[in-house]
Structures are given as C-alpha cells and as structure tokens.
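Lab notebook, design round three. We kept the backbone fixed and only want residue identities now. Task for the bench partner: fill in a sequence for the structure below.
Input structure tokens:
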C-alpha cells in the first residue's frame, strides 16, 4: 500500500542544526499512518544491483538512510529516481564496484552492496563500516559468508576487497554462529546468482529478510525457507526487473504505539502489520495498553498511567532491540520497577544519561537496566546520540513537564520521516527549530 505522501527531509542550513522543541502534557488522539520499512527498503535497493533493467520499489520512506543508499547505488553506476514514495533504479550498466568511505561511514547498511556486487560483477571494494554510537558493529559474518561462497576477501587500508572465483560464486552450506540480519541478507543476495545450492543455517527470521527474499523471488530467484532459521537458495543465471511493494515499518509502528501509550492517548494506527508485532503487543498489554486489531488498522487505548514490565531483547520473533530505548522511556514514567535486558548490543544504552537528565531513575548494570518509574519527568536540553535513542527522547519530551529541546535530530531523520509533523497531527506540541550549530 503506497505510503502517505510526506515532503522529503529538509537539508540542514549551513551553520544551523535542526532540533526539536517539545512541550509535554498533551494526550495523543487521532490517526497515524505508518511508513514503509527502512530496514527492508535498504537491502532491496542493494538487491536491485543484481538485476539488469529498471526495478521499482513502492512504499519507500523519505529518509536520510534511503538517500544515502541512493547515492551509493549512483556511485556504482545504477541510475535511480525517487518520485513520491517509489524508488526506481536501473542497474543495467554498473560502471564501478567501489562503495566509498564517505558514504559507508554515514550508513553501515551500505555493506549490503557487497554480496550483490560480488555476484553480479565478480568484484567488490567496500569501505569497512565503522562502529556506531553504542559500540563496535563487526561484519565478520558477512565476510565469512562471502568466503564460503568462494570469494577471496582481503582487508586493505580500511576497505573490504573481494573477488569471486573464475566462473562466479559457488553455492555453499553456511551456518552462522549468531543470528545476523545483515549477514543473512548479504549471503541471501549473493547466493541468488551463485552456481549450485546454498543453505543458510541459523538465518535471521526478521520480516525485513522475508521481504528481501520475496523481492528476490519476484525477480526470478529460487529461495525457500525465508522466515525460518534455514534458508535454501538455488542459484539462477540472471534475475529480471521487478516492481515490488515494501512492507510497513514495524519499529516505527511500535514507536507510534509507544507515543500513544506514554501520553495516555487513543490513536488509530494505519498500515502496520500486526503479525510483525506479536511480542511487542504482549509487552504493551503487560503495561495496560489495550488494542483493537483490524485488517488495516490498530486502535490503541492507553491507561492514564502505565504499569512496569520486564523486557529482554532477542532476534525476531523475540523483542526487537530497536524498541528497547523507546520502552525504557515508557518504563521511566510507569508505575513500579521495570527491567530491560539487552542481549543484542550490550552497550546500547547511550539514551540512559539523557533520560536521566529529564528525571528518569535508571540503574545500569552490565547489559541490564533497572528503571524505577517516576510520576513526572521534567523537560530539559537533551542530545540525540543515535536513531532509536532519539525517538525515546521525543517520547519522554511528550510527557515531561515543560519544554524539552532535543539536539542533533538528524539522527532521527535517518529512520523516521518527518516524525514531528505526524506527531503534531495527533496533538503533540512539537516543532522543528534551527539552532546555532555546535
Ligand atoms: C540490523 O542491523 C538493523 N539495521 C538494526 O537496526 C538492528 O538493530 C539489528 O539488525 C538487530 O535487529 C538494518 O537492518 C539496516 P545484526 P545489523 O547483524 O544487520 C553481531 C536501526 O535502528 N554481528 O543482526 O547490523 C552484531 O554485533 C538499526 O534501524 C557480528 O558479530 O545487525 C550484533 O551483536 C540499528 N558480526 C548481532 O550480531 C557480523 O558480521 C546482531 O547484529 C554481524 C553482526
């Protein structure tokens, strides 16, 4: 279903940076549309490199990360356009195989071009992605997967330099020791054009990987088992251009449900996939939120005060690590003591000191956060450190007493399209302001 039309994110004025000014205290009421999934659109855009011809992906959100991936594809020679919320790309002629440092460093998902370039062009030179706000983000599983498919992989001055064997990649049996969304996606894409059969064990079951597999099957790939921990790919000689509808963004949907929940509001969420949110619904229900789930919408009704609960993040269908920060904000104002255990990225707590500035009572011990709910947070000057931390601070600002000024909102523009416009559309007192840069 095509996304609701939003203007693309405004480019920051030189010398000024965007911030959000939020005044807390409003209940959210009304209808919120959910955009297309960022973490499905990014690998699909990379997968288009496998396909000579013009492919179209509908329901692609206007985000910084999507613009970055568009630039990476353009650098490789793929010609792309972005009318409304449909990304069109023609990868008939790829003119080079290098994804450069200045693009990859801004978005680690650029590594998704590694598999498609190796499969289509036989060579790839991709800058090693750096870490991120909460620590190292290794790519060893991606590289091991490419080696098992027959590629020679070396690291040279900060670049991954990979070369497929003469005759192309070869099908292989690949058992990942941990479940990795990115490594599963990269191997899945590369294996579609490999000679022979590839089996991926301990594959990621995330809906975004299922959507990627469905996109590749629509282009002529032979894939089975997507959505389970064992995916089988029978290589084909080539893929054909495809037109494909992207899935909705479950993390954005969860963020919007949390915005309704934290303000004690009543919101109708349009375009989300309830089947992608099962465990998230359970945790919200623990906290007192009620849902009426229909075919195309989810009615959310929140209590005046939430109850505390316990969260442990895990690979899908477990609780998504990308909603951990948001739930920490919810627990900061819930009745009782909540516990959040982060098992995917043990250091993913850069939002904690910022929430503490607003009065949250959170004790961190190793990868476990214990949160004693407080009746009232207070508005403050706070700083975004990464995409999902930013959304947690927006939610805290929606209920804090007084004004919150959230700096560095370019982080949030990476993953939420004009979030301030959509929240204002259901009653939030939030605006984007330009302030003197740091
Ligand atoms: C994807 O990142 C998402 N990004 C992340 O969302 C999400 O947090 C993450 O999956 C987990 O669900 C995109 O899809 C673009 P992983 P990815 O490989 O693929 C370790 C957001 O906010 N690992 O599943 O990089 C890794 O350190 C972003 O939208 C290795 O050790 O995550 C982590 O502990 C943030 N070696 C675990 O696996 C590797 O080669 C899971 O990471 C790869 C990963």
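Proposed sequence:
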């Amino acid at each position: 279903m095509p996304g609701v039309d939003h203007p693309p994110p405004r480019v920051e004025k030189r010398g000024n940076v965007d911030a959000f000014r939020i005044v807390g205290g409003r209940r959210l009421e009304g209808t919120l549309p959910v955009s297309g999934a960022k973490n499905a659109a990014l690998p699909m855009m990379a997968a288009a490199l496998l396909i000579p011809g013009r492919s179209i992906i509908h329901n692609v959100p206007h985000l910084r990360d999507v613009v970055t991936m568009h630039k990476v594809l353009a650098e490789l020679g793929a010609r792309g356009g972005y009318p409304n919320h449909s990304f069109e790309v023609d990868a008939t002629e790829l003119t080079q195989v290098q994804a450069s440092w200045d693009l990859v460093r801004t978005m680690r998902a650029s590594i998704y071009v590694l598999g498609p370039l190796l499969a289509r062009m036989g060579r790839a030179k991709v800058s090693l992605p750096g870490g991120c706000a909460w620590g190292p983000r290794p790519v060893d599983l991606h590289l091991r997967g490419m080696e098992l498919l027959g590629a020679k992989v070396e690291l040279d001055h900060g670049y991954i330099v990979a070369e497929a064997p003469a005759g192309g990649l070869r099908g292989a049996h690949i058992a990942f020791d941990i479940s990795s969304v990115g490594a599963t996606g990269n191997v899945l894409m590369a294996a579609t054009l490999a000679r022979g059969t590839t089996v991926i064990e301990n594959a990621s079951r995330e809906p975004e990987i299922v959507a990627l597999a469905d996109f590749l099957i629509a282009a002529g790939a032979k894939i089975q088992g997507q959505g389970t921990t064992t995916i089988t790919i029978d290589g084909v000689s080539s893929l054909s251009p495809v037109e494909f509808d992207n899935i909705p963004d479950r993390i954005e949907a969860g963020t919007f449900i949390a915005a309704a929940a934290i303000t004690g509001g009543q919101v109708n969420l349009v375009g989300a996939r309830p089947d992608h949110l099962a465990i998230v619904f359970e945790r919200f229900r623990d906290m007192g939120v009620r849902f009426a789930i229909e075919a195309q919408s989810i009615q959310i009704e929140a209590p005046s005060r939430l109850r505390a609960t316990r969260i442990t993040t895990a690979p899908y269908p477990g609780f998504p690590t990308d909603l951990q920060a948001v739930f920490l904000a919810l627990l900061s104002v819930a009745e009782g003591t909540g516990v959040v255990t982060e098992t995917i990225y043990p250091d993913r707590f850069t939002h904690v000191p910022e929430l503490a500035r607003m009065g949250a009572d959170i004790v961190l011990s190793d990868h476990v956060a214990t949160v004693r709910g407080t009746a009232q947070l207070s508005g403050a000057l706070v700083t975004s450190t990464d995409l999902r931390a930013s959304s947690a601070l927006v939610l805290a600002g929606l209920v804090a007493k007084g004004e919150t000024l959230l700096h560095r909102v370019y982080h949030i523009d990476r993953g939420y399209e004009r979030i301030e416009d959509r929240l204002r559309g259901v009653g939030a007192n939030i605006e984007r302001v330009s302030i003197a840069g740091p």
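Keep this in mind before ordering anything: The pocket of EPZ is lined by residues 39, 42, 109, 137-142, 178, 180-183, 208, 321-322, 344-345, 387-388, 415 (CB under 6 Å).
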